[in-house]
Amino acid sequence: xxxxxxxxxxxxxxxxxxxxxxxxxxxxxxxxxxxxxxxxxxxxxxxxxxxxxxxxxxxxxxxxxxxxxxxxxxxxxxxxxxxxxxxxxxxxxxxxxxxxxxxxxxxxxxxxxxxxxxxxxxxxxxxxxxxxxxxxxxxxxxxxxxxxxxxxxxxxxxxxxxxxxxxxxxxxxxxxxxxxxxxxxxxxxxxxxxxxxxxxxxxxxxxxxxxxxxxxxxxxxxxxxxxxxxxxxxxxxxxxxxxxxxxxxxxxxxxxxxxxxxxxxxxxxxxxxxxxxxxxxxxxxxxxxxxxxxxxxxxxxxxxxxxxxxxxxxxxxxxxxxxxxxxxxxxxxxxxxxxxxxxxxxxxxxxxxxxxxxxxxxxxxxxxxxxxxxxxxxxxxxxxxxxxxxxxxxxxxxxxxxxxxxxxxxxxxxxxxxxxxxxxxxxxxxxxxxxxxxxxxxxxxxxxxxxxxxxxxxxxxxxxxxxxxxxxxxxxxxxxxxxxxxxxxxxxxxxxxxxxxxxxxxxxxxxxxxxxxxxxxxxxxxxxxxxxxxxxxxxxxxxxxxxxxxxxxx
Length: 554
Hints:
- One of its GO terms (biological process) is sodium ion transport.
- Keywords: Cell membrane, Ion transport, Membrane, Sodium, Sodium transport, Symport, Transmembrane, Transmembrane helix, Transport.
- This protein has 554 residues and is an all-alpha fold.
- It is built from 25 helices and no strands.
- 79% of the residues lie in helices and 0% in strands.
- The chain starts with 5 loop residues before the first helix and ends with a helix.
- The model is unreliable at 545-554 (pLDDT under 50).
């Protein structure tokens, strides 16, 4: 296989991260604004926000897991990965619009849950978001190591360290503002490169001939565009997983709170189209690898894209692919660092340790230290070489326990802190038991888990319909889904633990949340959210105003 020389590799990395660093220095402020560092003062325009959302969603999993899906499941693999992921971006927007209406100056969803319920709900969501962002960061570092190991003379560890240090260097200065600024440039470069590289790989591998010959080599299930195996093992679990990213991934929430409120819909629709086109195209590289009989180096599925490129592309395009992948990984890794810093700044320090008397200077220091610590932790975990697709589905399933409590808390005024907390814990327990088969999925246990799963499926469909068409349609879709799916699921779904685990988390948390909530007669005034969540800089100004203590005393 062709490899870039050591000199070329170093020049590409230094040039990419050097230019990115210089770009972020242009927005360095002498006196940093803590709200600008976290959410750009809630005023990012359409073009930048749409590019940033697309670049952030097109991450390591989008490149490597889509190709893995194409390699494992054939024709329908990339469609299942790209289409459902794009659909979920679109489905997030109506709920995101509601979040912004209730708390236009929020920084994190966990901060909203504290204002809605209390401390325990905030910390549950905050720590799940932190865990998710660390895993996402790890996935991107892992993908970088795989890329460098295959396409250059350097090894896996060198690739991980190079990207980790490069991303940290430019994100540390300006936080979220640096992330969205660089996302725009990275997305343009990524799409241009994809438009050239994907057709080149196809034609270099043999063009239409590779399809004719490849169809004879692959299994009937891989050749079936409507493969049931692909849907049950890949499409359906991913559909459930990515909906959970609306509440579990702070990188998405951060952009939601940063974009101008009147541009939310346009941003999410544009990101949906951009994501679908890019990711489905990248997945076709995995399909080409399957049809030509390529065997992943060392049995590692993360090597499919760099290995295929090395096999079929000329040196110039391999260098272009190298930068394209590095750019996509960096765009999401810097988002993860910005997300982690905002979570620790807001939910750990600002609203808890500082007891709403946070000092912006201290917050900025904590945010930057968080970035350094998270980078070090991500590098250490990346050395274990987890499979990226497994990481994605695992976190999506885990976050499924939070979807119903978080979303419905912003619509139903009877949900309280007890309902939120207990339902989240119950959902996670059910997920872990079913996903890792801690109890044998037979007999009563199997039936209970499948019932929870079918309720979870009804919740997923019902929430999507509710977001776009309102409460009545949402309940109708959920009811029909429950009736239709129950006879199909019982006695069957236990054979697909990945899908079962993802849906069980939704179902168990939903049932628990509703049962506890129905016993609560108190009503919540949603107007309180806007009063309780304010910009940190504004809070500091108010505390510094003369006579403030006297007013508070009265």
